[in-house]
TrEMBL record:
Record keyword Signal present: yes
Keywords assigned by UniProt, alphabetized: Signal
Keyword flag Signal: yes
Designated name of the protein: Secreted protein
Disordered as annotated region, ranges: 36-67
Organism: Nocardioides hwasunensis
Signal peptide interval: 1-31
Length: 160
């Protein structure tokens, strides 16, 4: 059973990484439906980085990476990762345009659950945000944010 779980987790990470390579980030979409899913959008800088460098720039806030996508039924998600005093600051956001919805969310770091909880959409925008800090491990960190509400699934991945 452990081997099957380990294989499934490795396969899920490989699929997520393959999706990022083709610009595919989002809600369980395949390469064939990549055009329906949000794309990477470094907040600033990044034009001079080599291909595959997700860090978006050279320093400060230029190192922030932002990914966005659709969850279904008009809801959208945003995942931001940036350095913060030797750690990584992670922000996951869901915007459903409906206040009062309760979403279950999970934050994963390199495949392991880093935190989970529930958020309720508020305000006119009908959104909620999760902000956490994780250890910046050696090499590439894979951060995944997933939120679920009544069959709607929002899922974003950033390799940092």
């Amino acid at each position: 059973m452990t081997t099957t779980r380990s294989f499934a987790r490795s396969l899920a990470v490989a699929v997520a990484l393959a999706g990022l390579t083709t610009g595919l980030v989002g809600t369980g979409a395949t390469a064939a439906s990549a055009h329906q899913v949000g794309a990477a959008a470094p907040r600033s800088g990044g034009d001079d980085d080599p291909a595959g460098d997700d860090h978006g720039g050279h320093g400060g806030d230029d190192d922030e990476v932002v990914r966005t996508g659709r969850c279904g039924a008009g809801a959208t998600w945003k995942l931001k990762v940036k350095p913060d005093d030797g750690r990584l600051e992670v922000e996951g956001e869901v915007d459903s345009n409906v206040a009062g919805q309760r979403w279950r969310w999970t934050l994963r770091h390199n495949g392991s659950v880093s935190d989970r909880g529930a958020g309720t959409t508020t305000g006119r925008s009908g959104s909620f945000e999760v902000e956490r800090t994780v250890v910046d491990l050696a090499g590439t960190d894979t951060i995944a944010f997933r939120a679920v509400h009544r069959g709607k699934v929002c899922r974003g991945v950033v390799n940092y």
